[in-house]
């Protein structure tokens, strides 16, 4: 992998503080103005790597790396940097809490009118959005973890009081975001003969089977999921229709916001008023993936080790985990249904039950398919290799790895992006949500799947795709001015596609940072895939070296100081090679070769000595 994630993150940090830090104050807002989502993404550009990459941590002044201090130098030194960040975080949580103490999760300036529709009202812009719930989960977990570590590194009373306030606000927002996700979960039930059912059957039917056979097979594979849906009682998504009816099919996932008529979630936390919902009771693929990734953060190892969730939040997390598992199983089943020759996800583009179709939906479905394959023990190289092939094809179709011609429709996925229509309870379009994250999501998926592959060659090929996507994204950085080094100038990769922006897109910048965090974790946490042939070769070398070493010990006394030192060195290298033969067979083989050469030198020296040479 040519990507250097640590260096890239540091470069983005330099660009971020240059763009946002002005005369000792943090400047909120980007290309789409300031709202609860964009400002959280702006903050996560700094906090996400600090939380998930240990070499870039900012919560302990004694451990801050010199290069990190240099990159964030505008904020101060190792002592001042975390203090300044605390002030910025406190400002964010205050900005998005109303006078009654209720956290605000409005989409604000990210929401746009429907084509030809009237301008949005303030009431519409103030509606709670799943994207805000999801990004708040990630932000608050990073904040609470930051506070827990930083509190141990300071004794200043004023700072400790500020940390207590910050942690309290973050906990309230985290609980409220979890409640919001529970009230936004949707299970849409329909018959196989109506248009939603017909579209679903047509999408998954890669064998041209009779519709009745497809429905029966799909219901059989989803039997456990349908049974478990009856246990969804908290929040929204409760199934009232008779799923036992052999004609019934369903979808599950997250809608764009709080479901209309969603019940309030009882909680002991002081989260304020639970606002009434207005979203239709139907899953949206984009918001489903966003919610699933946030729930992953709730159940991450870091969250458990640092004890970031209190008792009430753990209860809510278990309820969200059930919905996560049901959704994962459903989408993985649908995406890989039936034909072993071609899965539905390989039939690009993905078609949704409401009749929409786009390559972007295929890309999003790959995330859910991978989660599901791993859960049921089907995450081998053959299955994941098929997902990897889909990613390669998507990169070609989006003209990321193929030459583009001016005006191609394929370029619209980059700018202006995919317009997702948001419907009310009666399925009437009320506003739109713009999505232009195709390249950054593709990069994240490529890195994630590469880390799961056991075949070294396949992994290298997918990482080569990641390198190509990153090269594409580098062309889209803002080239000059205060915001240089941030995203997104789509015209840099596709001349004439979009004008030079006047401000950065924190939406895309945060996703580029997220991809670099994934790349860092791939390099630091996941071992290189073991090749069985290389392991056997390394083991053979180690066995021979061990045999020859033992034989030399039996033959001589090694009275000389230099010879004793050489034998101790050989013993240490041999022991190291034995430890690494399974995890790092290439390194073990290199050490064994060195040991064999040293043993040969010892043997040759003894022979010459005995011959008087």
Any overview of this molecule?
The protein has about 625 residues and is mainly α. It contains 21 helices and 9 strands. The chain has a 3-stranded antiparallel beta sheet, with no helix packed on it. Strands 1-2 form a two-stranded antiparallel sheet. β1 and β2 (about 25) form a beta hairpin. α1 (about 5-20) runs antiparallel to α2 (about 35-50) and α6 runs parallel beside α11 (about 285-300).
What's the gist of this structure?
This protein is mainly alpha-helical and 613 residues long. The chain has helices spanning 5-20, 36-52, 66-71, 80-95, 122-125, 130-150, 157-182, 195-204, 211-221, 223-228, 285-298, 301-305, 311-335, 359-375, 381-397, 438-452, 456-475, 506-525, 532-555, 561-580, 585-610; strands spanning 21-22, 25-26, 111-112, 185-191, 248-254, 350-351, 357-358, 418-423, 429-435. The strands form four sheets. Strands 3-9-8 form a three-stranded antiparallel β-sheet, with no helix packed on it. It has a two-stranded antiparallel ribbon with strand order 1-2. The protein has a two-stranded antiparallel sheet with strand order 4-5.
Write the layout of secondary structure elements.
Elements: H1 5-20, E1 21-22, E2 25-26, H2 36-52, H3 66-71, H4 80-95, E3 111-112, H5 122-125, H6 130-150, H7 157-182, E4 185-191, H8 195-204, H9 211-221, H10 223-228, E5 248-254, H11 285-298, H12 301-305, H13 311-335, E6 350-351, E7 357-358, H14 359-375, H15 381-397, E8 418-423, E9 429-435, H16 438-452, H17 456-475, H18 506-525, H19 532-555, H20 561-580, H21 585-610
Antiparallel strand pairs: 1-2, 3-9, 4-5, 6-7, 8-9
